[in-house]
Amino acid sequence: MTIQPCDHTSVGILVFRDGKLLLIDRKRPPLGLAAPAGHVDKHGDPVKAEELRFQKAAVEELSEETGLIAISLDLVAEGRKENPCRRPGGDWHYWRIYRAEVMGELKPSTEETRGHMWCGVHQMRDLLGGVPIQMSRGPAGLEPVWKEWFIELDILKMFPR
């Protein structure tokens, strides 16, 4: 299988349910716990408005990785991060991070994930402090770019009280 070059654009989707944030345990590099995310390149028509392409990518990546359907998206952050991916040339990405309201049943992709967790505020505090969480395959920590995003977003304040 040929891996296409990196397009340097990524989306991430924050999903909260019952006071917890959905994290997936990534099966492909870069490994670690992360919000559902993916590249923008394969989603939509490149001549369409950029924001629509990012939104389409967010909706499709969320569905591909989790089976959940986004019914609304709210842009919470965007910016460039130095972060590697498995694609050739993939050493940085321009990100848009959305908070999504979702419907449907969680059905994580076995091709994209090794598991998932609904992370509570106390678990997130541990992860941000570098304490790994026990997953079915063993201990797992945050994917580095997501640790950066969660710190920048002050994610602990985003958890419902």
CATH topology tier name: Nucleoside Triphosphate Pyrophosphohydrolase
Largest sheet: 7 strands, mixed
Task: State the distance separating the first and last CA atoms.
Answer: 46 Å
**Rough shape?**
globular
> What structural class do helix, strand and pairing data support?
alpha+beta
| Average pLDDT rating | 93
The rounded Rg comes to: 15 Å
The string of secondary-structure elements, in order, is EEEEHEEEHEEH
Tell me the number of helical segments per DSSP (H or I, 4 or more residues long). 3
The top-level CATH class is: Alpha Beta
Known CATH architecture: Alpha-Beta Complex
The CATH superfamily is identified as Nucleoside Triphosphate Pyrophosphohydrolase
Please mark out the parts with pLDDT under 50 across 5 or more consecutive residues, or reply none. Answer: none
Strand content: 35-45%
Proportion of helical residues: 10-25%
Number of beta-strand segments: 9
**How many discrete domains?**
1
